[in-house]
Amino acid sequence: MNVFQGALLGLIQGLGEFLPVSSSGHLLLARFLLGIQNAAPDVQASYKVLDILLHVGTLIPLVIVFWKDWINMLRHPVKNRLLLYLVIASLPTLVIYLAAKVLFPNVGGPGVSGFAVFDSGWFLGASFLITALFLLLCDLISTRRPRSGKGVGPLQAVVMGLFQGIGMIPGVSRSGSTIFGGVLSGLDKKKAASFSFIMSAPAILGSLIMEGKDALDEGYFKHLELVPTLVGILVAAVAGYFALRFMLKIIAKVPMSVFAVYLAVIGIIFLVMQLSGSSLLPTFSAAAAIP
């Protein structure tokens, strides 16, 4: 990986983390287009580590933009229930993550279990279409329901946590699915988006801890070039800041269907190429995950 590729992947991560289009899905798509997805298994694993590090880059804008919320919830953990709701929201996500490990043990071959079975991109086209459906339903519910002054509560935290678990599938947008979960459970889009972005912080840290340790033990970090990786993280942080500000500004004004149409188009193109036997893409089968 060179500096240009690192910067490009960082840009994709920064924009995709907060725009409801799936950063993980677009990182996979970019690697297909760059011709670096079909590398040796250990090199592919290093790109998975890179994805985690780029996600860590997007923690920086979360700290900057929501710094008052972080300080307030840490100084007043009892009075300010946001911290409690973040814990509640993280539990369903953790349960889904562990359940996937049980339901998909080595489905994609040795060492490829849980949501890693989707990492080859074989389900990517379908995932984009699932996100598009979530966004269309989000708009449908928002327009047909009177404006609600309801804030985040235990129910919203649980529902959004469940959808965050679904968002671990590459191509299913974490922000898009959790915003849909928030709207589905009674929030307006702006409040759902704010909590969605804040709750991404513990999810990113959890992923770094759980998957980063495994990557360190397996020696996958040695395949990452230092300078391109650092450039990618920096670009992800800067792009993420502007994407986060942008989404908070337009979320109540711009319909989510704008993003849904985009995702539907690339999802259909991906599936057509995939089902027509394109050599660039994996076959539509979990067996494609086998190294």
Task: Please outline what is shown here.
The chain has twelve helices and no strands. The protein has 291 residues and is an all-alpha fold. The chain has one domain (3-289).
What is the mean pLDDT?
87
Oligomer: single chain
Largest sheet: none
Number of strands: 0
Cα Rg: 18 Å
Termini separation? 20 Å
Total domain count = 1
Which class best fits the helix and strand makeup?
A: mainly alpha
Order of secondary-structure elements? HHHHHHHHHHHH
Q: Count the helices. How many? A: 12
- The amount of helix comes to 55-70%
- Shape from CA axes? globular
Beta-strand content: under 5%
Poorly predicted segments:
none
Write the layout of secondary structure elements.
Blueprint: H1 3-18, H2 23-34, H3 41-57, H4 59-65, H5 67-75, H6 82-103, H7 124-144, H8 154-166, H9 174-184, H10 189-218, H11 226-250, H12 257-275
Helix pairs in contact: 1-2, 1-3, 1-11, 3-10, 3-11, 4-11, 6-8, 6-10, 7-9, 7-12, 8-9, 9-10
